[in-house]
Design brief:
256 residues; 3 domains; 69% helix
Length: 256
C-alpha cells in the first residue's frame, strides 16, 4: 500500500470537497501529511469527521493517514478507527492492524470501536486482532461477544482460526461473557472442528447453567449434530453435570 499521499490528494480535499490548485513540487511526505490532517481537523472541528472525509476520498492512502492521525491525536484513537472504517468498511482489516500495531495496549477498545463502526466485518476484526495480540485473546473475545452477541458463532470461529489450540479458552470466555450464546457457539464449532467435539461440548457444559436452560439448548444442539445420548452423558459428566440433572435435561429434551 502506498505510504505517500500524492500532491493532488493533499491539496484537493477541503471541508466541502472543492478542488484547489495542484502544487508543482511535492513537500516531504511526513510534514505534508501532518499539515494536511491538522488543517482538515481544524476545518471540520472534529478529528472523526476529518478522518472520515480524507479516507472517503483517498482510501489508497489509508496507511499513512491513519498512522499519522494516531500519532497526532493519541487520545482519540477510537474515534479515528471508527471514522476510517465507517468511511471505507473494506479497509477494516488495514485500519485495525495499523491501530493495534500503534497501540497494542488498547487492543480490546480498538476491537470494540471497529465492530461498532461496521458489525458485518466482525470476522476480519477479531481475526486480525487475535493474530496481532494473541496474549489479549480473552479480552478480544469478551468485548466482541458483548458488543455483538448475535455474531457469537462468527466470532468464535474466527478467533479459533487464529488460535486453534486455544479452543477451550475461547469457548469459556465467550459463554462466560454472554451465557445465552452457548448454543450457537456449539453449533458453529461442531461443524468447523468435528475432531474437537469432546472439547467443545464438555467446555460448554462447564460454563453453562441448568437454571437458565442454556444446558438444555446446548444438549439440543449436540443432539442435532448427531452425537449419541450415551456419548453426551460422558461429556456431561466430564463437564460437571450430575447424573440426575442429565437425566432431567434429557427428559425435557424428549418432551419437546
Amino acid at each position: 500500500m502506498k505510504r505517500v499521499l500524492c500532491t493532488t490528494a493533499l491539496l484537493c480535499l477541503s471541508l466541502t470537497g472543492q478542488v484547489f490548485a495542484e502544487a508543482p513540487q511535492p513537500l516531504p511526505a511526513d510534514d505534508k501529511t501532518i499539515d494536511f490532517i491538522e488543517k482538515q481537523v481544524e476545518q471540520n472541528m472534529s478529528v472523526g469527521r476529518a478522518i472520515k472525509a480524507i479516507v472517503s476520498h483517498y482510501p489508497q492512502d489509508v496507511e499513512i493517514v491513519i498512522s499519522t492521525a494516531l500519532a497526532l491525536y493519541p487520545d482519540q484513537y477510537r474515534e479515528i478507527v471508527h471514522a476510517a472504517i465507517s468511511a471505507q468498511p473494506a479497509l477494516t482489516e488495514d485500519v485495525v492492524s495499523i491501530a493495534i500495531e500503534t497501540y497494542p495496549q488498547h487492543c480490546a477498545k480498538i476491537v470494540e470501536a471497529a465492530i461498532n463502526a461496521e458489525p458485518s466485518y466482525i470476522d476480519f476484526v477479531v481475526n486480525t486482532a487475535t493474530h496481532a495480540t494473541p496474549e489479549e485473546l480473552q479480552d478480544i473475545v469478551r468485548i466482541a461477544v458483548v458488543t455483538e452477541p448475535n455474531s457469537a458463532d462468527t466470532i468464535v470461529r474466527s478467533v479459533a482460526e487464529a488460535q486453534p489450540n486455544r479452543l477451550a479458552e475461547i469457548i469459556t470466555t465467550a459463554i462466560s461473557a454472554v451465557p445465552l450464546v452457548g448454543e450457537y457457539i456449539v453449533e458453529a464449532l461442531l461443524v468447523s472442528y468435528p475432531q474437537s467435539t469432546e472439547t467443545v461440548i464438555t467446555t460448554a457444559f462447564k460454563e453453562s447453567s441448568v437454571e437458565d436452560n442454556s444446558l438444555l439448548r446446548i444438549l439440543a444442539a449436540a443432539r442435532g449434530a448427531g452425537i449419541k445420548d450415551d456419548v453426551l452423558k460422558v461429556y456431561a459428566h466430564n463437564g460437571g453435570i450430575t447424573d440426575e440433572d442429565f437425566a432431567s435435561l434429557m427428559a425435557k429434551l424428549d418432551d419437546q
